[in-house]
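Z., the sequence and structure:
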Amino acid sequence: MKRVLTAELGSCLGQEVTVMGWVLRMRILSKVTFLLLRDRSGTVQAVLDPALLKAQPISTESVVKIRGVVKAEPRSRLGFELAAEEIEVLAFADQLPFNVNGEELNIPLELALDHRVLSLRHAKTNAVFKIQAALVQAFQDFLNSQGFVQVFTPKIVASGTEGGTELFPVEYFEETAYLAQSPQFYKQMLVGAGYERVYEIGQVYRAEKHATSRHLNEYVSLDLEMGFIEDEHDIMDLQNELLASMFSSVAAKCGKELEVLGLTVPEVPQIPRIALAEALEILEGEYGKIHQEPDLDPEGERLLSQYFLEQTGSEFVYVTDYPWTKRPMYTMPKGEELTASFDLLFRGLEITTGGQRIHQHDALVANMRRKGLEPDDFKSYLSSFSLGMPPHGGLAIGLERLTAQIIGLKNIREASLFPRDRHRLAP
């Protein structure tokens, strides 16, 4: 008999069906046993004769197959239940390291990550990654509608895109290669190849020895690059529409998951923009917060977001015009000291970095040298700029950070299925 999902049982009243899933919980009485079964679509209560369980061991989280008849039951939350006629244990679950079926998980994060397959079964943890998947799908859908082409670029590269040393080296036959920090070079090259608008969803790697609640050493980056722009504001305009579409899609498609988590997806307004220099003045004047460097530290990001929430009601704010010293060599200069770049803060955390790129070969070479870099180390990248490169720019959104901020997670590792950080390589 073909398997039926629990979400489909409402249309099967009076019919004999077969369901399969995990035992969420059991209540064994003298004359009847109530078993709550969970599959990917939901749960259903099965009513069994205790005699059906005598021939085989069964436990919470065991995988079972149940054949029975769907019967109306007004006292059930669903309005029906499954009168079981046969049950088969497909895989017995040994003693669990923690209870995964309470309303809250209530265990240390390290324990949850050590037993990730089990912790992902918890309703609230499970919902996080269905929302994350919906965000990715909406990112693709919107950009496809805007003439972007999805691309897939190498993750083993000859050099770093950011010009720094925070790279993971790997043996590549007789050479040393590195895990990619970003698809930045390839995005730009593909704009120059005539695709004009490209995006990629893929892992990137940063060999920074941090151990904070906001950093991962491997994360998923939602990247886009587009040609024939006027300036960095074209990129911000596009992202404003992109995020509005993504959030709207999640609200429409993830009602059950949002309900489980007790969330509503925020509206994306016309996002305010402020130059970094002005933002630093506001932080000093309003909060007495002084930055030693022309940049925002984590506290500065939180305070600036708080200020804009109070002043405008927006949970987002673009911070623009970052200093030349704080941006990579491919960023378009804006005068001598600034760049045509931006960060997007959402609920107190930077989730996006972007801006206009240098599109003229000689200007890019000059900027590399000014940064202390050797242009010969970037020959394959530079060569595309002597073939006719349009004015262009782009951005990168950290998927885990975006997920964490929407849901209100305290640690970014909670937004990664199998996080890789300073101390974790397994599972």
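Residues 6-91 form a domain with the OB fold (Dihydrolipoamide Acetyltransferase, E2P) fold (CATH 2.40.50.140). The first helix runs from residue 109 to 114.

Let me know what you think.
H.
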